[in-house]
Structure formats: C-alpha cells, structure tokens
UniProtKB/TrEMBL annotation:
It comes from the Eukaryota. FAD binds at S104, E123, A124, V341. Residues 1-28 form the signal peptide. Its EC number is 1.4.3.-. It is an enzyme of class 1 (oxidoreductase). This is Amine oxidase. It comes from Symbiodinium natans.
Length: 579
C-alpha cells in the first residue's frame, strides 16, 4: 500500500499540502461547500407560500388597471390621451416592460415597485425563476424537502443575494449547521477524488490533497504568482490595457496553463492543473474558454473581496423566494407567464407631449404592450437575438451577443432513502475526471440532501464534453454511468436501493440553452465595445436596458450578479423616470 498520495499521512515527509495553499488564494472560486452536516429531524418553515393563483393570464391582463399613483403614471395618462394608434386604445402604456421572470427581472420589478413605477413582467415559460427551479422530492408539501435543480449556492460574499433572501423572509443556511438539528460530524469525513491512478480520499469538500516536494511547491507558487500578476494587469474596466491581451485572447485557458505557464513540464501535471482550473470556473471545458476572459473575470470578481469560504443554501429553495416576491408585486404590476416576446419596436407615439422619445411596442405571441422602457432581464444571448428589434440593436451589442457562448450543464440527482455515504465516513463530495475523454475537466458531485434530511441526495453537475457525452447515452446508460461514479467513490449503495433520479439538462432547455456565459477563445478582444455597453452601462438605447447574471461584471454567472445588475438597472430607471 503506497502512502505516496496521502498528503496528511504523518510519514509523508517534506511534503506540502497543495490544497491549503490554494484554498487561501482562490477561496472564492469554488462552488462546493465545505461542510455537510444534517440531522434527522423535520422542521416546517412557517413563512413559505404555496404557489398561488396570482398571475393574470394574458387574455385578461390588458383589462387590468394599473394601480400606480406616481408622477410617472400621470405622465402615462397624458400620453395615452395623446395617443393616436387605435391598436393600443384598450391599454395604457406601462412605464417599464421587463422581459424575463428570473432573478434579474424580478429584482428590477421589486425596486420599481418601491418607487411606485408601473411595470409588466413578461415571461415565456409557464413558471417563474428562469434558471432557478426547486423540486419537492417527497411530494408531501413540506418546503424543507426541497432540492435545487438549477442555481443553488450563495457564497458569503454574495451580499445582494443574501440581503434579498432575508428581505423576502427566507433564511439562508449552511448545510449541516441547521439550528435544532443534530450536526453531522463531518470534520473527519472525506470527499473522494478520481485520479489517473484511482480513487483517493480528499478534503470534505472533495478537493484533492496532494503532497508536493519542495521543488514542486516552489514551481507551483511561482506559477500561481505569475497568474495573479497577470490577473492584476487585466483591470476589470480596462482589460485590453494588458500588453499581452491579444496573446491571452488567442489562447484557451487550457492552452494558457499548459503552454504559456509550461504546466506540462510539471512532474505530475494533473496534480496542479485541476487546482489552477478552479481559478476560472465555467460550465464549459477550459479548451473552449478564452484565457483573457478568465483573467478579466478573476480581476472583476476578486477585487477587494476577502472570501470567508462559506456557502449557503436558501431554506425552502431559491425559487420559493421568487414566488413570494411575485405575490408582493401584485399591487403595482402584473406578471404574464407563457408569453414569449417576439419583437420590440418603436411606436409612432411619443412618450409625452414634452418629449420626442418614442414609446416601445412589445409584441408577444399573445398580446402587444406599450412601454416607456424595456428591460431585457437574463435572456441568454441566443434567446435575446431571436427577438426582432426595430430599430436594430447597436452593432457592437449584436456582435457581442452572437459571440458569447453558454456552458453545457446538467444537474443529475440521485435520491436515496438516507445519506448512506455518511455512515461510511464520507462527506458526499466527489471530484472526477472522465479519463476516456481528452478533456481533464473535473466534474463535481455533492451531498445535496434537503434541509429536513428526510432523504439522502447526491447531486452531480456535469459540464462541457462530459455533459455532451452523457447526452448521447440513453437514460439507462446515463444512470449507470453516474451511479458507477458514485459507487467508485463510496462503494455500492445498500443492495435494495434503487434511487429516484431527478435529471435536468439545462443545455437542452429551450429558454436557457445552458448556463454561465463565457467568451470563446479569440472573441474577447474584438467584442470589448459591446462588453462595455452591456456589462457596465446596461443600456442598449435610450429606452432599452439589459440586466442578468450573464451580463454582470460583479458575480458574473451567479444569482448575486442577476440581482445586483437588476437593482442597478432599476436605480437608473427610477432616476430617468422621476427626472
Ligand atoms: C445547473 C445550474 C447550477 C447553477 N448553480 C448556481 C449556484 O450554485 N449559484 C448561483 O448563484 N448561480 C448558479 N447558477 C446560475 C443561476 O441560476 C443564474 O445565473 C441565474 O438564475 C440567472 O438569472 P437571470 O435572471 O439572469 O436569467 P434567467 O434565470 O435565465 O431568466 C431569464 C428569463 O427570461 C425568459 N425568457 C427567455 N426568452 C424570453 C422571451 N423571448 N420572452 C420572454 N421571456 C423570455 C426565460 O424563460 C427566463 O425565465 C446555476 C445555473 C445552473 C443552470
Ligand atoms: C408610493 O406610493 C405610496 C402610496 O401612495 C406612498 O405612501 C409612498 O410614499 C410612495 N413611495 C414613493 C417612493 O414615491
Ligand atoms: C485588478 O486590476 C487592478 C488594476 O490593474 C489592480 O489594481 C487590482 O489589484 C486587480 N485585482 C486583482 C484581484 O488582481
Ligand atoms: C406563447 O408562447 C409560449 C412560450 O413558447 C407558449 O407556452 C404559449 O402556449 C404561446 N401562446 C400562444 C397563444 O401561442
Ligand atoms: C478514506 O476515508 C474513509 C472515510 O473517512 C476512511 O474510512 C478510509 O480509511 C480512508 N482511506 C484512506 C486510505 O485513508
Ligand atoms: C465517460 O466518457 C465515455 C466516453 O464518452 C462514456 O461512455 C462514459 O459514460 C463517460 N462516463 C461518465 C461518468 O461520464
């Protein structure tokens, strides 16, 4: 039995734990929580609202009168009187149409409501939440049996999101630390990591713990220092000032690590590669992502932030919190579900007598709405480009949107009667690489048992080539592939156990097409004017705005970015409309 890879073995000699060094430098880059301690008791959450029949159907929505009493609303009445187009005579213009009822769209609505600005949210799906979706795995109506099918984790630096959940009356919790529940004794339990030489124990969160020689450690630190220097030379607001910007954009992040930093000359390349990949976490293989995108994003994300390294989930689920918000919004505006926006055009009518600004006509497959302003909230690039704009979007914006890609991502959950892996001393965290594929992209699974601990859930996120591989398999073969990962990591489950499967491939979801916008190799430099406009100004024309996790330079790709960009757009709208 070779002790060579057991980093914390007392006889490991002059070895350093790579994980420790990197955790301090890259804490914010992980998406897997450190601790999972869940006890056996059930707690009902008192303040959860069941989905109510609160949404107006498009058919009767245009008859609803707007309750707004603001100055803005009086202007809208004026403009309605002066309106000439008979087509819209049955409806008054609304101040703001928000396209998309995900976190960004409803954050905009929330802020507008606080300023008495009228709005209408238009959502293509029959449900709220966009890339947020909760599932009640027990089907007995207990909110604490919820697991997350889409977005899930809030990091302790995600202050917009945490404040938002609290304002909605929803608690965030650290899994395993639930008050009143028995803590799961996880300090001594291990995650598992698949390496080219087999499965190994890892830290509770599944990070590999490698022993490195002094020389390897020196090399690794030198590389890490250089990468951080290159990040610091790629300022969030002016990344092209990096003198190597064209080179870094021409390299994928994978090539940047292997070739530019000569990682391939490392004695055991794999030991450090995965750790450095974590500096640029996307839902796509590093072979496709521009290295310049990674340096830019790291500069934007890490600036001035000290990550405490804690990860939270939302008790009752992040979609429940949005449903609660939607019920509160009813007094100021309406939310139309199952209405897809097809076109956004200038009308013949002016916003008001004193302005030349044209009202916008928002055409959906069910109805047409007049609005002063339109916010595109969270629509992935391909969905956004399907909308017909008259006049067209600025060229640099359409160019940017046509270049951006989304990661291929799936969340696959195995629901067992109990978290059997804990009894064997394992945390449930797995990190694996599919060595039959050329990509060394690490995939992650984790203990995703619900707050109530009524079931044991293991959830795997599969991305990039691994996910595309799983897409080609039958349902049965996919299940066998993922169960083989779990059994490889923790041993077989109890013999009689046939877990329930909850599987969602977001890349095959018509209104998402994946998650986490990234710049493919070679696209970042040439699309900077569009990036500046979309990610920083959030304004595409005098009355068309853009928000969303994928268009936020803070917490890019996360709920926190969706909320932050939505709030920023709403503030600008309040200023504009109250001016
Ligand atoms: C598997 C997975 C795991 C994730 N994990 C995390 C995590 O742990 N932590 C985290 O913070 N984030 C996570 N995310 C990301 C997070 O879910 C998203 O960033 C966030 O929910 C995006 O919100 P949004 O409002 O910007 O966009 P969306 O939620 O995508 O909202 C856009 C809305 O627009 C609608 N729409 C599209 N086209 C039209 C149209 N033509 N007309 C009308 N409506 C339209 C869509 O249906 C959708 O509801 C994850 C995502 C996935 C998929
Ligand atoms: C919004 O309207 C309510 C009720 O008319 C009023 O009390 C409140 O002050 C208004 N808020 C703002 C920000 O105008
Ligand atoms: C981002 O870039 C600015 C400007 O070069 C630099 O001062 C800052 O330290 C960088 N941030 C990080 C995290 O490197
Ligand atoms: C409008 O589009 C949505 C989303 O595609 C669809 O669910 C709905 O049935 C459509 N409605 C009509 C009237 O065509
Ligand atoms: C790995 O971790 C498990 C669970 O904590 C433990 O039982 C086992 O002995 C460990 N194996 C090694 C080789 O350390
Ligand atoms: C690994 O990739 C091979 C080849 O595409 C595929 O057959 C297998 O199911 C994959 N396994 C997992 C766990 O993704």
């Amino acid at each position: 039995m070779g002790p060579r890879l057991r980093g914390n073995h007392p006889s490991a000699g002059p070895a350093f734990l790579l994980e420790v060094a990197v955790a301090a430098l890259a804490a914010a880059a992980s998406d897997v929580p450190e601790k999972f301690n869940v006890g056996p008791e059930h707690f009902m959450q008192a303040n959860l609202h069941k989905e109510q029949a609160l949404f107006l159907k498009p058919a009767d929505a245009h008859e609803a009168t707007c309750q707004s009493r603001s100055f803005v609303q009086r202007r809208s009445e004026v403009s309605q009187v002066s309106a000439s187009g008979a087509d819209f005579s049955s409806q008054s213009a609304v101040d703001v149409v928000i396209v998309g009822a995900g976190y960004s769209g409803l954050s905009v609505a929330h802020k507008l409501r606080q300023s008495n600005i009228s709005f209408r949210v238009i959502e293509a799906r029959h449900r709220l939440g966009g890339r947020i979706l909760d599932e009640d795995i027990s089907k007995r109506g207990d909110a604490d049996d919820t697991i997350e099918i889409g977005g899930q984790w809030l990091h302790d630096t995600h202050s917009n999101a945490i404040a938002f959940m609290n304002a909605m009356g929803f608690d965030v919790y650290e899994p395993g630390q639930q008050e009143g529940l028995q803590k799961f004794p996880c300090s001594g339990c291990h995650g598992r990591v698949a390496t080219s030489s087999g499965w190994l124990n890892a830290s509770a969160s599944g990070k590999a713990t490698w022993p490195l020689s002094i020389e390897e450690m020196r090399l690794f630190h030198a590389t890490l220092d250089t990468i951080w220097k290159e990040i610091s030379e790629t300022p969030c607001k002016d990344p092209l000032s990096n003198p190597n910007a064209p080179i870094f954009d021409s390299l994928s992040y994978d090539a940047y690590l292997r070739q530019h930093h000569q990682l391939e000359s490392f004695p055991e390349f794999e030991r450090v590669y995965g750790t450095l990949l974590d500096l640029c976490l996307e839902a796509e293989g590093a072979e496709r992502v521009s290295a310049l995108h990674c340096l830019w994003k790291a500069n934007c994300t890490h600036s001035g932030q000290h990550a405490g390294g804690k990860f939270f989930r939302v008790r009752g689920g992040p979609q429940a919190s949005l449903k609660h918000l939607a019920s509160e919004l009813q007094s100021m505006g309406s939310i139309w579900l199952s209405s897809e926006v097809l076109a956004i055009k200038d009308s013949d009518e002016s916003d008001s007598e004193e302005s030349d600004e044209k009202l916008k006509v928002v055409v959906t497959n069910t109805t047409t709405v007049l609005a002063r302003h339109v916010v595109l909230a969270g629509l992935p690039p391909a969905q956004l480009l399907k909308i017909k704009f008259v006049p067209q979007l600025p060229e640099e914006v359409s160019k940017l949107l046509s270049l951006l890609s989304l990661g291929s991502v799936r969340k696959y959950s195995l629901v067992y009667k109990a978290p059997w892996w804990r009894a064997r001393g394992y945390s449930g965290s797995i990190r694996y690489v599919n060595y039959s594929l050329p990509s060394l992209d690490p995939q992650r699974c984790f203990d995703n048992s619900p707050y109530s601990a009524s079931r044991g859930v293991l959830t795997c996120m599969t991305t990039g080539d691994v996910n595309r591989g799983l897409q080609r398999l039958s349902e049965e073969a996919r299940r066998a592939a993922l169960q083989s990962v779990v059994h490889g990591a923790f041993g077989a489950a109890e013999a009689d156990e046939s877990p329930q499967v909850v599987d969602k491939d977001w890349s095959r979801d018509a209104y998402s097409g994946g998650a986490n916008v990234f710049y493919p190799t070679g696209t970042f430099s040439s699309s900077w004017p569009g990036t500046l406009q979309v990610f920083f100004h959030h304004q595409l024309s005098s009355s068309i705005w853009i928000a969303g996790a994928d268009y936020s330079h803070i917490s890019h790709g996360y709920m926190n970015g969706a909320i932050g960009s939505g709030q920023a757009v709403a503030e600008r709208l309040v200023q504009t409309l109250h001016a």
